[in-house]
Amino acid sequence: MTTARTPGHGPLSGARVVELAGIGPGPFAAMLLADLGADVVRVDRPGGPGLAIDPACDVTNRNKRSVVVDLKAPDGPEQVLGLVARADILVEGYRPGVAERLGVGPEPCHARNPRLVYGRMTGWGQDGPLARRAGHDIAYIAPTGTLGMIGRPDEPPAAPANLLGDYAGGSLYLVVGVLAALHHARATGTGQVVDAAIVDGTAHLSTMIHGMLAAGGWQDRRGANLLDGGCPYYGTYETADGRYMAVGALEPQFYAEFLTLLGVGDRAAARTDVARWGELREEVAARFKSRTRDEWTAVFDGTDACVAPVLSLREAPHHPHLAARGTFTEHGGITQPAPAPRFSATPTSVRTGPARPGADTTDVARDWDVPGLLPALGNPQ
After folding, report:
1. 302, 306, 307, 308: CA torsion to nearest 10
2. Is-catalytic flag, 304?
3. Of residues 166, 200, 228, 360, which has the active-site annotation?
4. Whole-angstrom Cα distance, residue 363 to residue 41?
5. Residue 75 bears catalytic tag
6. What is the pLDDT of residues 35-61, one digit of tens each?
7. How many CA atoms lie within 13 A of 328 on its CB side?
8. Of 136, 184, 319, 331, which residue is the catalytic one?
9. What is the tens place of the pLDDT at every residue in 239-291?
10. Is the pTM of this model over 0.85?
11. Cα(180)–Cα(211) distance, integer angstroms
12. Virtual CA dihedral for 212, 213, 215, 216, nearest 10 degrees?
């Protein structure tokens, strides 16, 4: 690991990461490591990863550098292994066995660098009957029980974009895993393989719910529980202009303030009386339909009623609180979420825009002292 440190680049400044290009949770995990200050080199394949997005707009490749390597070429694996020899972490998201066939699996990587943390990101994991099957987020979260929790009881389960599986159950668990393994490698000099499966991470996210289920505090069906929309004071309601407000007034004091500001009569007893939840929901829904979202936002602003407007992606950066905190930032003409979390001594930032495939080969070859990369430059950069 290099000991050079660039002030202000985050707590992982000095760490080196090799990302074998893919789509979805792998690139996002590598972006998070890059946001935290790691020097992430993305190894792009000739022709790109197959994601139909302009590379100039793919902000999951921000704060990274890119080289292009054809792993199917005779010298391709050796070029990657040259990077591996100088890296702390490798991230790959191939199906099980693919990295091995390409000559960059854990065995040759650890032969070159025993301290390497080899992070593997898949949907099904490295073993099990479905390990080699194709899939996407929604198919991974379906068997875990989490997809079946989301949505109204009289409608099909609602797809939570690809946030729950790919990024929460996938990317974030991979990052936790490789950082824990990096701590171990620095302490012992021994690297290891981190098997991050979306099915494992997504199931793990539901730990509290399983505890409630075992205790009899959760029904194993959709829209019948405290946190899944079954509770009338934890959910969303349409307003007069066809927009929505979100309500999370769980505790008694917040519930009381919510009812007062909403203009609903004394319904304190309905809070714990499940038999009255249907009646309460109808009354709350009717009240929210009487005003616009912005009018209700003004009513609840600055209170502890735990009510907030449901904003769109384009609206979110302009929310007063998010704007004040700088939750979103602008770089290169693209508004995007700022790096998170925040650090008092080693602040993070968006330092560079999306890495263009192959644009950094010369610089990486010099900085990492891997001259073998240079023949991969098809044309001067």
Report:
1. 70
2. no
3. 166
4. 11
5. no
6. 999 999 999 999 876 666 888 999 999
7. 16
8. 136
9. 999 999 999 999 999 999 999 999 998 888 899 899 999 999 999 999 999 99
10. yes
11. 26
12. 110
